[in-house]
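User: Some background: our group keeps a shared notebook of sequences we're curious about, and every so often someone picks one and asks for a predicted structure to add to the entry. Today it's my turn. The entry only has the sequence so far, pasted here. Could you supply the structure so I can complete it?
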Amino acid sequence: MARTKVVCISHKEDADGIGAASLIRQAFGGDTKLVDYPGLMTELEQLRNDESIKTVYICDLGLSKTNQDQFVELLKELRKKRVSVTYIDHHDLEDGIKKKIKALKVNLIHTVNECTTVQVYNAFKSKLNDHSSLIAACSAVTDYMEDRPLGSKLLQRFDRQFILLEATVLTFTIVSHQKDGEYLLYLVDELSQLKYPHDIPNTFEFARIQAERISGVIQKVKDNMKKMKNLAYMEVTDSGASMVVNFVLGMSGKDVGVSYKFREEKGIYAVSIRGSRSCKVHLGRIVNQLATDLGGSGGGHDKACGAVIPKEKILQFVKKFNSKLN
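Assistant: Of course. Here's the predicted structure to add to the notebook entry:
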């Protein structure tokens, strides 16, 4: 059987992952698989035995010490079968892993200085409609990377308030549909067909509902967050950790905010971490090592990262993290 299938595996939790997938769909067609960070390896394991696959794009899915060697091995298997692989990402990546990926003749498009969708746009703009620059600009805003060289140029093409509106509508719609995989795929499809986020049916209503949820979180953060010397932290029960962490950071006056939510089905805590502009350490690197030491996984950017921590180790994680921030 001839290999003909194009597949894009992308991050499902934010506008950068959804935006990148929509641009790949527009440029190359094919199927989209949306996953969270722990879901990347499971998806690649399934792909390696698919004899119909010709090309794989992997977008906005960072690696950690826990999975980076397995990732390289899976790419090696795909390359042995002459599957073309492009890996596009902006999370911290060890030099040794970069070399191994490039040695497999994988097309590695990687910088920590631009969000993934901006990198996708920049690499493939000859195959994209100019409307795609709006999706890239929205992704840069939502990933706090609108001040970077390429991202800021894209933002200048549009009215700033318009981009902020579109980015917020898109983000709130994505966040409120994390348990609805079919809807997220529908979003990718609509965006790839040059729809503005506000033009997709009901997105303003989804954004309004999400805004109500967020306003309800503010008082809970005031009542429940705890402070240590170098960070503030809070356990979340009825909303997303990645939403709450921004309020923990903002209201605490600390340079680092941490929030975590128990995932009962997996027996782990999902942890979100944010740093202020004045935070001087690379949080993603600290968390990558610390989470691995505690039997979990983690990593990310200098001021925005996350981790998966075993249930019984969560308070140990917070205490050790606090001490490493000295």
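Suggested note for the entry: The longest strand covers residues 256-263. The mean pLDDT is 94.
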